[in-house]
Structure formats: structure tokens, C-alpha cells
Structure to design on (659 residues):
């Protein structure tokens, strides 16, 4: 294939993105409603189990009521977890294209992750507005401050998604393993519980989880408390490195997709 | 832009054998280390091919010979394991059915997707959508998902898309075989116009008629290797001959045991009109069959010749005594005979000629010898022989 300037692929990416967003809910009457309903039900369940039954101590929640505390971290978690699943699905789902047309396969990953982020960003924004109306101290200036971290999370997710999607084409086991791993990571991230509840030795381990760092930071920034920290830069750099590594592996393996699918 | 649209040098392709989990793991390590695939089955090897602007090249070969793999390498979908494959310009590929359609998209969405894949801008595509829809001519189905299409409809849409996007190099894999008669004609007309306008075509087909009509050059791939690269006519002929021989049923009459007391044939050979012995004749050349027969009673034997195509289809045969012919006595019990076919009307292909010797009354057949020969030449006639004919002015039905 003759090399083509990158911009000539932009429309193809737009096409994939549009499809990624619309395909999730086409054929359903509820349409985009399900994009919100699914996380809302999760929110209600977790809020009941961890906020009412198990009763997280109110003084460890950083000034949030439990549903707000949960919601601020739940949507960013979905942006990650859902994107990874979609990224892993998109290569097999597009086998017919990969086997017949030459195009940069990473566009599929970018569309899967980008589309998922888009949907959950909409949901997050709607929920944040609702929380504000409910009287929670949601700071929209804080949301702007959180943007670089959100971009870093996107880069990190893209890197992980590309890595796992490519790996999965060669090793079918990856899909099973990732399903398990995502559940572990969900509970290893302080989403349904505050970090303060974790005993010290375990808390150090959690610090290795970049998602634990970002969801905690989202809560801080959205409460309007403080600005950027040095750690933010570290996470941004680490995310970009993850992206570079993920894309490197993806590009190493993607020319062989046709052989392996 | 360069005049060479595709150049393949020593291209080979191995497909990985991934039966076990361990082999997949080894493969992963090897690919990440940049060493390429591990254990493999060779699908293609040693292919050299150059396609220049305006060329029309046919690729022929049996099922599984590697034709589709070759097209995929040129289309950039498959990475060759060996050798280099370079392409220039916009390559439009119709591989198998459909040119990279997504089964869940509607026909119309696939038009946009395909043109985005080919690198067209949104505006360029929008200008062409109506032309594509009308060429495909599949009515209201255009807004249904492709997965509900019949294979014929997918091909119609695929061809319509590939043609409307005016690629520099058009690659088609067995596309013409799927559409119905009228769509095939439409495609042929379009392809002829495309080629007439300087377009470049790479065609895989099992139809030698299509290869000969559309292509000037052809490459025959046999078990992943190039077997013959030449003019479309030569390759088509050799390829058909190969198939004729493969499906041939031995119909040669088992010769009766030859003994010193029965008539037999010593040898036969073929000559040109000039007397030069040969086994290759040009279309329309004189063919002379000569032979030596032995008759133990020293009586003039009866002779029979028969011409069959390489697959065993009889073309023609005749008995010497019906023509009142007597072989020339060379010595005691030794007779020479010859048959001349003036301006032999056999069409290009591979044939066998058989001579039989019978006792003088022509009732019992004793011995058979056969020899193969080839008729070469270029013609679009089909069948076995060229029948004398003329095209004359027409008139209204009475």
C-alpha cells in the first residue's frame, strides 16, 4: 500500500467513530437512553450496597454524599473498562474489513475508545449537572482543571486497549483473562469505597494503579479544592508512555492480523 | 507518478500454523521480536510481477493455488513473508465478494465506508453516491444491511463502488462469475471502456474467455509458484490443456498382444509441409503424419488415424481403405504411410494423434501408437476446429 498522508484517514476515522456510537444502540427503541440507563442502574445498586447496607463513613467521603462520591468515579471507570472491552471486540467485529482492505487498523481502536469516552462523557456531564442541582458542591472550574487528567486517561486507555486488542488476536486467552482482570481492577480502584478505608500496606499497592490516582484526583478537583499537583504530571507522562508502548505492540502485530483472524 | 503501479519481486507468503496454544505463544514472541511468523504453510513463493499503467493482467490457477493471496498482497491487506511488494497510486480491490464491506452497515453506509477506505473525501463521495446506487441497481435494498443481501447483490454494489471511485489499479477476484447475465455484460462493457481509457486491471478468473477478452498478459500460478507468464492466449491455452489432461479418461483401445505373426506399427512421427519433423504447429499450418507399419504376411495393411484433444474428446478419424489408399511397400513386410492435413483447421491446443494398424480387410485392429502435438496461435474462436464459414449480408425474415 502506498503511504498516504495521515489526514486522508480522518474521514475514515470519523466514519468509524460515528458507527461506534450509533451501533451500540441502533435497533433499540430507547436509543441513547440506554447509554445513561446502564450506568445509572449500576450507580443505584452500588449506592444501595455500599452506601446504605455497608455504610461508608461519611467523614471519609471528602464532603460528598455517597451517591455523588460514587458517581464522580463511576463514569471515568466506565470510560476505561468499557473502552478496553470495546477495543478488544472491534478487531474480530471488523474481520471482514481487515481481510479485504488495507487501512491502519489502529483507527478501529481509536474509534472504539473514542466513541466509548464520548458516550460516557455525556453521561458524566449529565450526572454532574444533576448532582449540582441536588445540592452537591460540584465545581465546574474544577472540571476544567480535570481535563488534562481526562486526556491522560484517554491516552492510557488507548494504549492498554491497543495492546490487549492486538494480543488477543494472537492469544485467544486474553479475552477471558481481561474479563477477570477488569473486575479485579474495579475493586482495586477506590470507586465504591474511599481510599482512607484501606489499611496502610494495601494502600501503597493501590498507589500503583493509575486509575486509583485519577479517580481520587477527579473527586478533589471537582470539589473545587486545590489545583494541579506534581503527581498529575507524572500520571500524564506515564499515560503517554503507555500509549506509545501499546501502539508499538499493536503496530508490530497488526500486519499479521489477516493471517491470524 | 510512476508508470509502474505494482512491482513484486520474489514475493512469498507463509501462513502460520496455529493449531496449539503453545505455537500461538511462540508466534507472539517471534512477531514482537520482529522475526516474522514461526511455523508455516507456504501459500505463495517466488512471484515476480510488474504491472504498468494500462496493463491488463489475468491471474489463472486452480482453487487454492494462491491467486487470492497474491491479490491481497498487492492490495496491501496481507504482508508478504518474503520479497518486496510496492504499489503506487490508488488501488481498488474487489477481493472475493464485496470490496471490504461491513455486514452490519447498510448498502449506502458501506458506500461511504468504502470510499473513506479508498481515501476519498466526503465531498468526492457525495458527488458519486447516486451514480453508484444506479450502477448497482439493487433498488430499495440499498438501505438494508449488507448481511441481508444475496451474494449477487453484494457483488453488484462492490463493483459499482470500485468502478465509481476510478482507481489507478483495479483488482478483481472472480467478480464476473457471480453477477447475473445482464450485470456481467454491464461489467464487461465497463471494463472494456475502462481499459480503453488507459485503466489498469488485474483480474483473477476461472473463465478463460474473460481472461482472453480483457487481458493481454496472464500469469498462471500453480501450487503457489508461477508456472507460466505470457500472453493471455498462450497462458489460457496451456491452462485449459492442463485441465483437459487432468480430467482425461484413458480411452485408448487396449492393443492386442503384439507378436511376430500380427500386423504392428514400428513408429509414427509428425512433419511440417517442408518435411521437418516437429510436434508444434501454427494455427492453419499443414500437418503431415507419417509412419511405418509391419505386416507379417507381406500384404498391404489397412491403417486408421484418429485425432483427439488432450482430454480425450475425439476430433476426427478415418480409415485408409475407405479412401482407397495403399501404403508404400519399402521392403519385405515393411510399409510406409503418410496422411496430410492441408491447412489443418484445429484450434490452438494440445492434441494427440493415434495411428492404428489393421489386417488388410480393415476388420481387426492390431496395434496402436499415439503421439502428442500442439497447435499454437491466437484466436477468439472456440470449439475444436475452425469450420469453413463466411459472414454474408443479412435480410428480413421471409
Amino acid at each position: 500500500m502506498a503511504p498516504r498522508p495521515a489526514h486522508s484517514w480522518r474521514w475514515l476515522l470519523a466514519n468509524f467513530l460515528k458507527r461506534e456510537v450509533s451501533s451500540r444502540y441502533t435497533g433499540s427503541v430507547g436509543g441513547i437512553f440506554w447509554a445513561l440507563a446502564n450506568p445509572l442502574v449500576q450507580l443505584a445498586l452500588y449506592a444501595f450496597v455500599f452506601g446504605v447496607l455497608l455504610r461508608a463513613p461519611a467523614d471519609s467521603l471528602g464532603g460528598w454524599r455517597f451517591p455523588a462520591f460514587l458517581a464522580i468515579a463511576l463514569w471515568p471507570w466506565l470510560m476505561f473498562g468499557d473502552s478496553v472491552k470495546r477495543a478488544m471486540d472491534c478487531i474480530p467485529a471488523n474481520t471482514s474489513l481487515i481481510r479485504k482492505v488495507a487501512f491502519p487498523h489502529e483507527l478501529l481502536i481509536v474509534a472504539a475508545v473514542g466513541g466509548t469516552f464520548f458516550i460516557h462523557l455525556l453521561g458524566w456531564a449529565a450526572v454532574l449537572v444533576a448532582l449540582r442541582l441536588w445540592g452537591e458542591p460540584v465545581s465546574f472550574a474544577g472540571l476544567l482543571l480535570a481535563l488534562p487528567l481526562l486526556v491522560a486517561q484517554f491516552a492510557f486507555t488507548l494504549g492498554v486497549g491497543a495492546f490487549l486488542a492486538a494480543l488477543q488476536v494472537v492469544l485467544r486467552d486474553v479475552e477471558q483473562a481481561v474479563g477477570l482482570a477488569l473486575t479485579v481492577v474495579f475493586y482495586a480502584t477506590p470507586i465504591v469505597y474511599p481510599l482512607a478505608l484501606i489499611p496502610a500496606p494495601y494502600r501503597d499497592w493501590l498507589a500503583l494503579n493509575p486509575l486509583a490516582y485519577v479517580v481520587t484526583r477527579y473527586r478533589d478537583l471537582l470539589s473545587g479544592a486545590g489545583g494541579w499537583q506534581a503527581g498529575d504530571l507524572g500520571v500524564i507522562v506515564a499515560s503517554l508512555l503507555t500509549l506509545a508502548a501499546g501502539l508499538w505492540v499493536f503496530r508490530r502485530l497488526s500486519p499479521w492480523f489477516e493471517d491470524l483472524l | 507518478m510512476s508508470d509502474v503501479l505494482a512491482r513484486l519481486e520474489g514475493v512469498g507468503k507463509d501462513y502460520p500454523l496455529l493449531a496449539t496454544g503453545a505455537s500461538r505463544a511462540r508466534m507472539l514472541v517471534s512477531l514482537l521480536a520482529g522475526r516474522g511468523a514461526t511455523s508455516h504453510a507456504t501459500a505463495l513463493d517466488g512471484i515476480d510481477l510488474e504491472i504498468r499503467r494500462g496493463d491488463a493482467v489475468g491471474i489463472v490457477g486452480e482453487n487454492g493455488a494462491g491467486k487470492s493471496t497474491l491479490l491481497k498482497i498487492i492490495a496491501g491487506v496481507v504482508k508478504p513473508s518474503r520479497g518486496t511488494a510496492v504499489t503506487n497510486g490508488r488501488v481498488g480491490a474487489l477481493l472475493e465478494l464485496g470490496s471490504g464491506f461491513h455486514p452490519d452497515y447498510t448498502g449506502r453506509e458501506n458506500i461511504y465506508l468504502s470510499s473513506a477506505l479508498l481515501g476519498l473525501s466526503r465531498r468526492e463521495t457525495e458527488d458519486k453516491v447516486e451514480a453508484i446506487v444506479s450502477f448497482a441497481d439493487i433498488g430499495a435494498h440499498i438501505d438494508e444491511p449488507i448481511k441481508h443481501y444475496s451474494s449477487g447483490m453484494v457483488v453488484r454494489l462492490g463493483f459499482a463502488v470500485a468502478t465509481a471511485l476510478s482507481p489507478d489499479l483495479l483488482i478483481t477476484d472472480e467478480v464476473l462469475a457471480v453477477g447475473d447475465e445482464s450485470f456481467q455484460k454491464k461489467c464487461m462493457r465497463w471494463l472494456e471502456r475502462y481499459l480503453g481509457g488507459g485503466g489498469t486491471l488485474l483480474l483473477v478468473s476461472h473463465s478463460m474467455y474473460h481472461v482472453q477478452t480483457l487481458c493481454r498478459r496472464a500469469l498462471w500460478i500453480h501450487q503457489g509458484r508461477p508456472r507460466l507468464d505470457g500472453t493471455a492466449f498462450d497462458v489460457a491455452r496451456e491452462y485449459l490443456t492442463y485441465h483437459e489432461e487432468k480430467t482425461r479418461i484413458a480411452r485408448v483401445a487396449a492393443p492386442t498382444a503384439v507378436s511376430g505373426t500380427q500386423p504392428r506399427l514400428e513408429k509414427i512421427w509428425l512433419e511440417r509441409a517442408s518435411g521437418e519433423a516437429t510436434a508444434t504447429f501454427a494455427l492453419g499450418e499443414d500437418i503431415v503424419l507419417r509412419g511405418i507399419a509391419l505386416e507379417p504376411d507381406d500384404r498391404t495393411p489397412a491403417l486408421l488415424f484418429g485425432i483427439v484433444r488432450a482430454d480425450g474428446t475425439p476430433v476426427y478419424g478415418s480409415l485408409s481403405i475407405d479412401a482407397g489408399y495403399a501404403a508404400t511397400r519399402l521392403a519385405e513386410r515393411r510399409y510406409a504411410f503418410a496422411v496430410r492435413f492441408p491447412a489443418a483447421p484445429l484450434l490452438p491446443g494440445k492434441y494427440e494423434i493415434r495411428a492404428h494398424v489393421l489386417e488388410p480387410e480393415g476388420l481387426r485392429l492390431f496395434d496402436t501408437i499415439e503421439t502428442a502435438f500442439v497447435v499454437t496461435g491466437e484466436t477468439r474462436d472456440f470449439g475444436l476446429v475452425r469450420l469453413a464459414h463466411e459472414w454474408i449480408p443479412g435480410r428480413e425474415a421471409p
Observations:
- DSSP finds eleven helices and no strands in chain A.
- The CA atoms of residues 94 and 108 of chain A lie 8 Å apart.
- Chain A touches chain B at residues 1-2, 4, 8-9, 11-12, 14-15, 19, 23, 94, 96-103, 167, 170-173, 249, 252-253, 255-256, 258-260 (CB under 8 Å).
